[in-house]
Amino acid sequence: MPSGPATIGEFSVLPVSIPPLPSFLQNATHYLYVRRNAPKIPTANDSRSLFLTNIPVDSTEAHLRALVASLVGAGRFESVTFADERRDALAQSTPDAAQPAQAGRALQAHGAKKRKREDEEAGRAQEGAAARLPSTWTRPLRRSGSTAVVLLADDRSAAQVLKAIAKANRTRRYPAWGGDALPDGRVPPLGSVWLRAHNRLSYPDRDALQASIDAFSALFARREQEAAETAKRMRHEPDADGFVTVTRGGRNAPASRNEAEDARRKMLERQDKKKEELTNFYRFQLRERKKEEQVELLKRFDEDRRKLGAMREKRGKFVPEA
């Protein structure tokens, strides 16, 4: 196995031996880069987590568990989170193809909130799973150069893994990829055997494919009907500005002229009421200001009257010289 640097920047280099495959009958070397996990937003488990990059495309939790066990023994590995799994979780939160665009626009226009019960959510999840086409892969494959975060039992386990990587680089005794990760003790083949399995799954059973198509069509039709009923109900409900939703097509789609005039009248009445309340509010302020000015004028008048009386008394006591 070729020798190389033990560290690159803040990463520890871990060469891993890839056993021969039917498509490549020679040993290969794959380089993993490991460091302490330091995300931009710290978490409570960062001290016992390791960040791995350039993981093999066939990485699974079982493979990484076996790799950690070969370095520091069993019982230290807890879980792993792959970067592509996080992306898939975010993708699931976006609207699916079976959601009609009409439903999304109608609900968004009126600010409707989705309030579903747990049983309804579980039922919709099952319907969505049934509407998806069968998978054409025997196992999940990672993108080249993908990353993962391995969670260990404690802080000491994470430090021991890094020490074991440094020791492996000194002794040049590197772990093998796969190990006892699977019951048969070998990595699933990625050569012709894997390609034949993929080719076979690319042409699923006709009944299974038809069942997925039927489930998707039924789900789309039901959601489209729900969207039409929602739009019909909202057609008679003016929004906060007094407008009524007007849509195209169908007997019940466009709002009638009387309904539009009624909605406009209500909107004008609401505006007049707001204007009147605002005007009365300013009138109240004006009355209060006039009262304060009157009080101030009376106060000044009393002060001037007292000054004038004092001047008159002083003038009456004055005796001019003979």
From TrEMBL:
Record-annotated membrane-spanning stretches: none
Domain Rrp7 RRM-like N-terminal positions: 10-197
Domain of life: Eukaryota
Positions of region (Disordered): 89-138, 242-272
One GO cellular component term noted in the UniProt record for this chain: CURI complex
One example of a Gene Ontology biological process annotation: ribosomal small subunit assembly
Chain intervals with Basic and acidic residues compositional bias: 258-272
Designated name of the protein: Ribosomal RNA-processing protein 7
